[in-house]
Amino acid sequence: MYITGRECGQIFAVAPMMDWSDRHCRFFHRVMTKKSLLYTEMVVADAVIHGDRNYLLGFDGTEHPVALQLGGSDPRKLADAAQIGEQFGYDEINLNVGCPSDRVQSGTFGACLMREPELVAKCVAAMKAVVDVPVTVKCRIGVDDQDPGPALDDLAKMTWEEGSDAIWVHARKAWLQGLSPKENRDIPPLDYDRVFRLKDENRSRFIGINGGVENLIQVAEHLENVDGCMLGRAAYHNPSLLREVDQRVYGSSNEPITYDAVIDAMCGYAEQHISQGGRLNQITRHMIGLFQGIPGARGWRQVLSTEAVKPGAGSEVILKAYERVREPAEAA
Ligand SMILES: Cc1cc2nc3c(=O)[nH]c(=O)nc-3n(C[C@H](O)[C@H](O)[C@H](O)COP(=O)(O)O)c2cc1C
Prior knowledge:
The protein is an alpha/beta fold. It folds into two domains: 2-248, TIM Barrel, CATH 3.20.20; 259-331, Up-down Bundle (Four Helix Bundle (Hemerythrin (Met), subunit A)), CATH 1.20.120. It is built from 16 helices and ten strands. The protein binds flavin mononucleotide (FMN). Flavin mononucleotide is lined by residues 15-20, 41-42, 69, 96, 98-99, 138, 170, 185, 210-213, 231-234.
């Protein structure tokens, strides 16, 4: 399988998640998996063009491979934003055709673009014309009363014709009336078979699946059928699973990184961030789930959520929280 500019076998990806997959979160995830593809939160094309680019697009050099997800539906603006993203060093530009929030619908982008495959194809064409990195699409299987047969087929076909390098499908519809974005991630039923069928009918295309995947056993099962598997909430809430991705998905012979090494890397990163005027909690809020299911996890969460928010908090808070994991009985 080949995505333009990047020879790849199968891909494990951490999903774009607004307010969650920011640069600090991605750094943390990258400490645990060197090979996964990490996605930014969606950034609206207009913001990229007119906003504070360093703030919106800046990332740490260790984050590669990292994909910038854009929101928008104006081909010219998306092309400009994609070009800026490429100049910033992103390894891929991804177009959001799956987000159902009201804010997104009023701007005519996100999931409602499932109804406008020709426009999405124009957006892809415009971005492909100006960047060398892969341009990809993340979509749903349909919206509202759309028949997911033609809805997904048309979108996939039209975007491939304009050079889209991959399609990631969140394997459920978005219902644009009456459901919150959060409900739209749970209530419309998952239909993995729809995505597998797309792959069966388009063997040479890169097709990734997303939605409701909870662990690496399920990832392996999906990768029997499609080229990529993308995790959102499971990776965020239980990030420790990322420690085994390089071995189990990519066949790396390295041992999973130890917790000691994760903590060490994050303390160094936190100190650097704080020395540049940042706050500890901006980093540690993404680390709350690290010890999920392990004795002492409660103490870890408690220390981080109460002490990392205090003015002047530094990496000693991470170490203190980690002590509670190592000695849960005494600390309880
Ligand atoms: C907090 C949050 C924010 C999200 N923001 C985005 C986004 O910016 N762009 C996008 O394409 N999807 C977004 N999503 C959807 C995820 O990328 C993913 O498609 C969805 O959560 C289903 O995958 P999961 O079941 O593995 O979480 C978001 C999901 C969550 C939980």
